[in-house]
């Protein structure tokens, strides 16, 4: 394999591999170097031939890759024949790849051009064919930045002649390079220094920034860069014209309010229509935007009505109740129901007649639950009296049920000796304390 093919293979491996390149702010580079030549081959003696200048110009493309051209002058003495000096010229195009981006920047260079070894005889053309050979070359170099834009260059390449009119040779450069110009990373025609969006191709009228949707709001300030909008809504659209941008509007096709996240509230119950199952009736969140029903029609909704299937009163939480007049009459009858000491048995014709009157009154007033409160005198201890008083209340309940009063309309409670209506220190007072009292059940 020829040497130039080897150089080309190495170059491809580097470029296709993981290259650490420079992203130059100043992409153009102009270099001036000394030109040192070492002739190689069977018809040449090795030695250093100093000359110059060597001038090059290149432009950074991307990822540390630069394209350029270089021209060099010099003298080349073949040391096997000191009386035969050559004037040396070369003109090349090259590709250079920076390997690292730091204060020490190595690079690989490969190229193709022409090398001329002139023997002093006048011939036609700047590069006459009898003195010029097509040349492949490749090598390595280093740059050492001194100050901004200025660097010291060292480079060594091997030049392989593709024809016989010359010598294979090493060519070494040592000199300075100057970087200039303004980079254009995004290739939008706006230098990076003036480009507000240097990494994204944009438009001159927007300082180098793109406006994808054409709404005159640059993408980096546009919350909806792909949909035309208005500046008041940060570049977004308001399809329903309710002043809320579509991305923030839960109902972008229906005009609504900010409080409802852009959705309407037709019945004004503070529940948006999309969450309201009764959009034309004021309701509650707990009932999915619908009003609570009033199953018994007593004006108290089922949520607050403890007896939603029975007509009741608001004061009794929707449950039916006996009027105060009825309760008063019931207690007049109840005051005539007698119990013997330490007994829960009802005795006397008067007691039984009054229980019958209570049954008739309850039939005439079918609404409400009757609470039967049992009491005792102070005979015996507290626990005993409470149990006895409850048995007295149950005795009345059982007799009323026997007379035909529905059991669900009756409840009992034993209260013992509390709330006496007579003096427990004498027999008469203790007798009237052995009693039952009535009241309507409160919910």
Structure report:
The protein is α+β, with helices and mostly antiparallel strands. Among the domains are: 3-180, Porin (Beta Barrel); 324-440, 60s Ribosomal Protein L30, Chain: A (2-Layer Sandwich), CATH 3.30.1330. The chain has five helices and 13 strands. The strands form three sheets. An eight-stranded antiparallel β-barrel has the order 1-2-3-4-5-6-7-8. A three-stranded mixed β-sheet has the order 12-11-13. Strand 11, helix 4 (382-403) and strand 12 form a beta-alpha-beta unit. The radius of gyration is 55 Å and the shape is rod-shaped.
Write the layout of secondary structure elements.
Blueprint lengths: L2 H14 L11 E12 L9 E14 L2 E13 L7 E14 L6 E14 L13 E16 L2 E12 L7 E12 L143 H11 L3 E2 L6 E2 L1 H16 L5 E5 L7 H22 L6 E5 L12 H7 L2 E5 L3
Parallel strand pairs: 11-12
Antiparallel strand pairs: 1-2, 1-8, 2-3, 3-4, 4-5, 5-6, 6-7, 7-8, 9-10, 11-13
Helix pairs in contact: 2-3, 3-4
In a few lines, what is going on in this structure?
The protein is α+β, with helices and mostly antiparallel strands. It has five helices and 13 strands.
Just give the CATH class of the domain at 3-180. Mainly Beta
The string of secondary-structure elements, in order, is HEEEEEEEEHEEHEHEHE
CATH architecture of the domain at 3-180: Beta Barrel
Distance between the termini: 107 Å
Q: Describe the sheet with the most strands.
A: 8 strands, antiparallel, barrel
Shape type? rod-shaped
Relative strand content? 25-35%
Rg is 55 Å
Number of helices: 5
